Automatic annotation (TrEMBL):
Its cofactor is [4Fe-4S] cluster. It comes from Sulfurospirillum barnesii (strain ATCC 700032 / DSM 10660 / SES-3). Pathway: Cofactor biosynthesis; Fe-Mo cofactor biosynthesis. This is FeMo cofactor biosynthesis protein NifB. Belongs to the radical SAM superfamily. NifB family. The lineage of its organism: Bacteria, Pseudomonadati, Campylobacterota, Epsilonproteobacteria, Campylobacterales. The chain holds residues 9 to 309 of 475 of the full protein.
Length: 301
């Protein structure tokens, strides 16, 4: 039908120069992450606060934090040097929506000074429902939500998330896990309803959620999520994460392949993710953050 092909055209238009959403685009278009969001509102057992949010980034990497106006300066500078720059993402170093002031100030400035660039946001999903109007207002076309479990009892979630901070209160254990899941599902639904393309990331945590991931994939498909990305847990004691210290081993390549196959329930799978850092610059897999790290965009005054 007409509407179906119109819908199809609008999706194509959204993904055709986004390196993370389109396999074809990932060799031709570049993205930049600006690390403007330091705080987080939940605790993941694979996270060490000294480093970037492990939901979208490679664990064990520390990004240089920027203020919104510094971030925009950096985007404009990089955009002048890398012609293929098509996407700006906020993926940490904490959670974009746990720092709404910095995040939306950055998006507002980008809309003004770099109106052609696509905006992307990555979040743990707890606060999407509260900011859905702002997300739509700044025409953020792409949102990544990390959803590691859809277990309604909270059992699996409580092993991953020791606490969730919501409305001035720390919610622990099953209660926290159930609350997070409820808000994640609500948030994803709201995004899909507004026509925003959603990517769901799930961290494959051996012995905790590996067998459960096909159920996550099923839910993701039901919700109308655009693409599903299973990322391996990288746990190292030197990262100081709870899982690393407790000896939950990293997921190996074989486990990842097996999980990706088990999750291939007719939902589009991302197979070219590079677990980029919160200040990544360049094509996926060609990280030029160090090059631009040396040039300081921080306000010295
Ligand atoms: Fe760390 Fe990201 Fe989890 Fe927050 S959402 S605790 S920054 S991994
Ligand atoms: Fe967006 Fe994630 Fe790609 Fe960054 S790596 S541009 S946050 S989808």
């Amino acid at each position: 039908t007409n509407t179906q092909s119109e819908l199809h055209a609008s999706i194509l238009q959204k993904i055709n120069n986004h390196p993370c959403y389109s396999q074809d685009a990932h060799q031709h278009y570049a993205r930049i992450h600006v690390a403007v969001a330091p705080a987080c509102n939940i605790q993941c057992n694979y996270c060490n606060r000294k480093y970037d949010c492990s939901n979208e980034s490679r664990p064990g990497v520390t990004s240089y934090k920027l203020k919104p106006e510094e971030a925009v300066k950096k985007v404009l500078h990089v955009g002048g040097l890398i012609q293929q720059l098509s996407v700006v993402g906020i993926a940490g170093p904490g959670d974009g929506l746990a720092n709404p002031k910095q995040t939306f100030e950055t998006f507002a400035l980008l809309k003004k000074y770099a109106p052609d660039i696509k905006l992307c946001l990555s979040t743990n999903g707890l606060m999407i429902h509260k900011h859905i109007d702002e997300i739509a207002k700044y025409t953020i076309e792409h949102v990544t939500v990390t959803l590691n479990t859809v277990d309604e009892s909270g059992e699996i979630g409580s092993k991953i998330y020791p606490w969730v901070f919501y409305e001035h209160k720390k919610h622990r254990g099953l209660e926290g896990a159930k609350l997070l899941l409820e808000k994640q599902l609500l948030g994803i639904k709201m995004l899909v309803e507004r026509g925003i393309l959603v990517k769901v990331n799930a961290v494959l945590i051996p012995g905790i959620n590996d067998a459960h991931l096909p159920l996550v994939a099923k839910k993701v498909k039901e919700l109308g999520v655009f693409i599903f990305n299973v990322m391996p847990l990288i746990s190292k004691p030197e990262f100081g994460t709870k899982f690393g210290l407790d000896g939950v081993p990293s997921a190996n390549h074989k486990q990842l392949m097996r999980a990706q196959e088990a999750c291939d329930v007719n939902v589009k799978m991302m197979r070219h993710c590079r677990q980029c850092r919160a200040d990544a610059v360049g094509l996926l897999g060609e990280d030029r953050s160090d090059e631009f790290f040396k040039e300081s965009f921080a306000d010295k005054s």
